[in-house]
Design brief:
Elements: H1 2-23, H2 45-52, H3 56-107, H4 123-153, H5 159-220, E1 228-232, E2 240-243, E3 252-260, E4 268-275, E5 278-286, E6 293-296, E7 299-302, E8 312-320, E9 325-330, E10 333-338, E11 352-355, E12 374-382, H6 388-395, E13 413-416, E14 420-423, H7 426-433
Antiparallel strand pairs: 1-12, 1-14, 2-11, 2-13, 3-8, 3-12, 4-5, 4-11, 5-6, 6-7, 8-9, 9-10
Helix pairs in contact: 3-4, 3-5, 4-5
């Protein structure tokens, strides 16, 4: 401490002396005296205060230096923060572009597939969501640019970094606007493609509806409900027609129809009626080389009819439970009679009438060898025996009598397995055959 004090005094004296010598004044003299042992060696207070005292200019410079140092530290932190923001924006922009490319590649494959992370699956919502995201990025860029301008206006931001950030912000804004425009264009294309697809679908549906309507009209475009025929062109076990109505309990019947067939051997089974417990309740069949037969309750009567010449023929069969008496008519002429065919047996109700097949169980289990091959029309059934004059009038096309139990009408006949219904005016077609 003593050496420091003496040195400061010496320096002060030397400085004062030099200053005084330079100005021509006399310098002060200092006398060094001995210090007794044990004396206080600390510097005098006055001398210390003289050494520590500084001028106002020095104090101002010191404060300026401190402020500059703090300013530099703050600017450094600002630069680091803004560089991090720029990196974050660059990363988001890159992800945006990658998502857009990924979406563009997958859009044509599957519109319902989610190719944009947690974005909506609908293309319109995806475009809107991307537009919102890009607008948010643009707002953040504008805020950053305003901050940069505020900083640069105070002269506290390096010119090079300021220009770099301005260029980068301009590029980002340009890229964002370009991407938004591309997405808007894709949205428009998606809308156009969806509209075109919907239009094609509607056109296809309209064409199908028109075709269905035409087919319905062709099936029901008969001049009258009874002017149609059922065609069974093949001997199979799956082509047949079905009468929707069933029979009540009957003690007599007359069944008439027009037939056209050239099948050999035998035309097959024009119709059959089966009930639970008796599949052969009523059957008309010509099987193999046997003559045509009428079955009632599985009892058989042979009929003297021949209709396999490929022409239209009108046939009628009558039967009554009293003595089992029957009659057979062809083209209005009675060709045979008989009796004792299931006498006193009432026809059971609730069965199924099949055209073109013989039933082994009610409504099914058909045998192709017994199938009817040809065309059939005007199948009518009554619950009584018709007079010969009425049968002749129908065969000569001078009168028409629909059956009171089963009338021949379009709505009453179904076809299956490839059997068809077509328009037919039987009397005109019969005249053409003759």
């Amino acid at each position: 401490m003593r050496a420091l004090c003496v040195a400061l005094l010496f320096l002060h004296a030397s400085g004062s002396g030099k200053a005084a010598g330079a100005s021509g004044a006399k310098g002060n003299r200092f006398v060094c005296t001995a210090v007794p042992a044990g004396a206080d060696l600390s510097c005098p207070v006055e001398a210390t205060n003289r050494v520590q005292s500084t001028s106002p200019q020095e104090e101002e410079l010191r404060n300026t230096i401190i402020q500059l140092r703090e300013t530099i530290l703050q600017q450094k932190e600002t630069i680091v923060s803004q560089q991090g923001t720029i990196k974050e924006l660059n990363s988001k922009l890159a992800r945006c572009e990658a998502d857009a490319k990924s979406r563009g590649g997958a859009r044509r494959k599957d519109y319902s597939k989610n190719t944009m992370g947690d974005l909506p699956r609908d293309p319109t919502e995806t475009v809107e969501q991307l537009g919102k995201t890009m607008q948010s990025l643009k707002d953040r860029l504008e805020n950053l640019e305003q901050q940069l301008r505020a900083n640069t206006s105070g002269g506290m931001f390096p010119n090079e970094l300021r220009d770099l950030l301005k260029r980068r912000l301009t590029d980002l804004e340009s890229q964002l606007l370009t991407r938004v425009a591309e997405l808007e264009e894709e949205k428009s294309q998606l809308y156009n493609e969806t509209t075109a697809h919907r239009q094609r679908t509607e056109n296809t549906l309209n064409s199908l509806l028109e075709r269905i309507t035409e087919l319905e009209k062709s099936n029901s475009a008969f001049k009258s409900p009874e002017d149609f025929k059922v065609s069974l062109p093949l001997r199979t076990n799956y082509l047949y027609g079905r009468i929707k109505k069933s029979l009540p309990e009957m003690y007599a019947f007359t069944v008439c129809m027009w037939l056209k067939s050239s099948a050999s051997p035998g035309i097959g089974t024009p119709f059959s009626y089966g009930v639970p417990g008796q599949a052969n309740e009523i059957v008309l069949i010509e099987w193999g080389n046997s003559p045509m037969e009428l079955l009632v309750n599985d009892k058989v009567a042979q009929l003297p009819l021949s209709v396999s010449d490929g022409r239209w023929h009108h046939i009628c069969i009558t039967w009554t439970t009293r003595d089992g008496f029957w009659e057979a008519y062809q083209d209005g002429e009675r060709l045979g009679t008989g009796e004792n065919l299931a006498p006193w047996h009432p026809i059971k109700p609730g069965g199924v009438i099949i055209l073109g097949q013989e039933q082994d169980i009610v409504g099914g289990r058909f045998d192709a060898t017994q199938a009817f091959v040809g065309e059939l029309s005007h199948f009518n059934m009554w619950d009584r025996v018709l007079r010969p004059i009425d049968i002749s009038a129908m065969a000569n096309c001078s009168a028409y009598m629909p059956g009171n139990v089963v009338p021949w009408v379009d709505a009453n006949v179904e076809v299956f397995g490839g059997a068809t219904k077509a328009a037919l005016e039987i009397c005109e077609d019969r005249l053409f055959d003759s």
